[in-house]
Design goal:
10 strands; three-stranded antiparallel β-sheet; elongated
Length: about 300
């Protein structure tokens, strides 16, 4: 089961139908919880999720339209996510994120996200049609931060009415999450967000949710650009080249003077096979370093790659 959960997080396409053993801590209290997913008696197309809260000795239930989706332990402790109306070859994704609130003894819906992943289209995955470069990236994000308090256990029947936070309040909430993530990142392997351990005791990098990386680009600023660049490098080092490039190209667009971000984006594009885009950026990087009088700091590899035009 642990292996199934890990694969589900990595690929976002596994079905989380049962959790018989103590596998997850969904409310971040250090004690194991368990959950199950069964067909709803109300509607055959709906699924009833029951979470047994280990530390509280209680259970919470909610009913959702999952399709082939399911429950995913959250990236931040105390969170979990639901993939809704999910089907393997469907390029449209919908995700609900819940966060445990001790005072309410329940999870609160704090974010809804939709986006498109063109690479999931069976034209590319099954029919061997060439994947356009831009189709490698998730697109058309619509992320909403939700006002408190729509409880997980209220998602029965028609469910609670949802109210969206203002753009200013949403940005503040994203910034709080980002601060937590970046502080945790600075702890290295001692932090809880960078790595997990699988059944074999092997260290595996945790996968940062794509909707959260999108939110990171919305609050990119002078106060966090350096840390975000470091985080993009972490994604690159763990071979998550697509999302590293996704973050870096926004850094490059907003802060073109950051030469290290320029070459890092070139490296990510190169590893993705986007050689034309990479070549242009290597040349841009070399030109900038010459203008700064730092050409001697440019590696021979980067100089070679800049001569492709």
């Amino acid at each position: 089961m642990r292996t199934l959960l890990f694969v589900c997080i990595l690929l976002w396409n596994s079905i989380s139908y049962a959790s018989i053993e103590c596998d997850v801590d969904l409310n971040g209290d250090g004690q194991c919880d368990s959950y199950s997913v069964v067909g709803s008696e109300l509607d055959s197309e709906l699924s009833e999720i029951t979470i047994k809260v280990g530390g509280a000795g209680q259970e919470r239930k909610g009913v959702f339209s999952l399709g082939n989706g399911g429950l995913l332990p959250g990236y931040i402790p105390g969170d979990f996510s639901l993939l809704l109306d999910f089907y393997t070859r469907n390029t449209d994704l919908t995700k609900y994120d819940f966060r445990w609130v001790p005072a309410l003894k329940d999870w609160v819906l704090y974010k809804t996200s939709t986006w498109v992943e063109p690479s999931r289209d069976e034209r590319y995955s099954l029919d061997n049609e060439v994947l356009p470069d831009e189709a490698r990236f998730p697109q058309q994000f619509h992320v909403r931060r939700i006002k408190c308090c729509a409880l997980f256990s209220e998602f029965l029947g028609n469910g609670p009415a949802l109210q969206e936070l203002s753009s200013e309040d949403a940005a503040r909430e994203v910034s709080k999450d980002l601060q937590f993530v970046l502080e945790n990142y600075r702890l290295g392997e001692g932090g809880s967000l960078l790595y997990t351990v699988d059944d074999k005791g092997e260290k595996r990098p945790k996968v940062t949710p794509r909707d959260f990386l999108y939110e990171m680009t919305l609050v990119l600023g002078e106060d966090n650009v350096s840390s975000m660049s470091d985080y993009a490098d972490f994604l690159y080092q763990n071979e998550n080249f697509v999302m590293s490039a996704f973050l870096l190209r926004e850094i490059h667009r907003k802060y073109p003077e950051r030469v290290e971000a320029t070459v890092s984006l070139a490296d990510a594009y190169s590893r993705m096979g986007m050689q034309e885009e990479a070549c242009s950026l290597y040349k841009e990087y070399l030109d900038k370093m010459r203008a700064l009088g730092r050409e001697d700091k440019v590696s021979e590899s980067s100089k070679s790659k800049a001569r492709c035009m």
